[in-house]
Structure prediction request, 232 residues.
Amino acid sequence: MTLRFDILTLFPAMVNAVLSQSIPRIAAEQGAVEYHLHNFRDFAEGVHQAVDDRPYGGGAGMVLKPEPIFKCIRHVLTEGPMPHMVMLSPQGRRFTQRVAEELAAKPRILMLCGRYEGFDERIRLGWQWDEISIGDYVLSGGELAALAVTDAVVRLLPGVLGDEASADEESFGKGLEGRLLEYPHYTRPVEFEGMRVPEVLQSGHHGEIAKWRLEQARKRTKERRPDLLDGE
Prediction:
């Protein structure tokens, strides 16, 4: 099954610059995913194709108008089955690895990237959205958030990373009990500027290595993200 992304954005070149590189590109070449970028300015009317206007009631900034976004969404919906609709918003639920896994099981995802001071509320009311936030901070637009979500989802698709165990053993992966940061990694040389690779990693004893990695993951999580261990 191929996962289709429909990303609605005023800056498709910005989004494509990332999706055409690294893992997102490889996933598309493998046929695991398709990316369809839609500029909702193309659906705006008037000489200047305005997509924003001043807010009713006054206030700073501009607000995205409903008409071009509604038209764009309706056009996109004619191109396939009903997508899971995601609005990137600081008001949404927090994006986590579990949410990425949930989205990776969807056949089609539409993501709406905001700009300016936000959306006319009727855009929220007019469609059934899954509002998602990637963190408690403000970005210039939803494109970077959409790319973060896309990358996290795409790497979970079967065969994309090659080694199926790879994603599981990363921070927040299933292989690390789902709540642990990733353990330390080492490669050659054995010694560098007085720092050596732990002996257990050189032992070839897979059971001891797995035990060490789990211990290190727990230690690192306790030191850096103790909130992940709450309830243990």
